[in-house]
Design brief:
This protein has 254 residues and is of the alpha/beta class. It is built from 9 helices and 10 strands. Strands 1-2-3-8 form a 4-stranded parallel β-sheet, with helices on both faces. Strands 4-7 form a two-stranded parallel sheet.
Length: 254
């Protein structure tokens, strides 16, 4: 397996994929982090939409099937859990850019018969996650002796957190699927407050916490993935939130 990333100097928008001897591409590259997307939606669209078109077209020309790692695109859902046929309600520039990538995938699949499988990944977490994201940000405050009180913006929003190893197992199913759109999540949601409490328990910390009262643009109250479609082909989320948090805590304290 040949991996490309920014860390290896690869530029999704300009560079060509080395596809000799390759029969399947996992397209995981892109701009991420919702707050940053609000300040730079054009760059997010360039990378996540146009960059995806470039991947798809190179794969089309080389007869290579594709797995596309999409994101949560359902906005504030009408019902929970959320099935793949639920209404798409794009509520931030990041989701807009990732759904544009999805539409490109469907176009290349329908018009060029390119085998493309789409995975809508909910809130993935695990060791090595960028410090800008919620779980590493909380853990950083827990570890810092200079931080007396842990602060988060809002304690109430609930999310479906799925561990990175479970996401990897789902993605590995895609070459045999060769098409379709699938949710990847744990099937359960936790509030930010519950998350803080579990991290405190994991770290054996007695720090207190509070919310600053600020809210993100177009905040979503609750998110739960319906993963029945993936379960029918043998996939199941196996890592609990507690076990995933322990793995992250152990990793940052090596």
């Amino acid at each position: 397996m040949h991996a490309l990333s920014r860390s290896t100097g690869f530029d999704l928008v300009h560079d060509e994929l080395p596809l000799d001897g390759i029969d399947h591409v996992y397209h995981l590259a892109g701009q991420t982090f919702v707050p940053q997307a609000w300040s730079n939606p054009i760059d997010f669209h360039l990378v996540n939409a146009h960059g995806t078109v470039r991947v798809l077209d190179q794969c089309r020309r080389n007869g290579v099937s594709v797995t596309y790692a999409s994101a949560y695109v359902y906005g504030n859902p009408a019902t929970l859990p959320i099935r793949e046929d639920a209404d798409v309600r794009l509520n931030n520039p990041y989701a807009f850019s990732k759904y544009a990538g999805e539409e490109a995938c469907r176009f290349y699949s329908n018009i060029f018969n390119l085998p493309v499988t789409i995975f809508r990944i909910f809130n993935v977490f695990g060791p090595g996650q960028d410090d800008r994201f919620l779980i590493p940000m909380i853990m950083r405050q827990v570890r810092d002796p200079k931080v007396a009180i842990i602060e988060v913006a809002d304690l109430s929003p609930r999310r479906d957190y799925v561990y990175v190893d479970d996401v990897s197992e789902a993605l590995l199913l895609s070459p045999r699927l060769l098409g379709g759109t699938y949710n990847v999540g744990s099937g359960r949601s936790y509030s930010v407050e519950e998350l803080v409490q579990k991290i405190l328990a994991t770290s054996c910390s007695d720090k207190t916490y509070r919310q600053t009262g600020s809210q993100r643009n177009n905040e979503i109250n609750d998110v739960v993935a319906d993963t029945a479609a993936l379960q029918k082909i043998g996939w199941q989320a196996s890592f609990s939130l507690e076990n995933g948090l322990r793995a992250m805590w152990d990793e940052i304290n090596k």
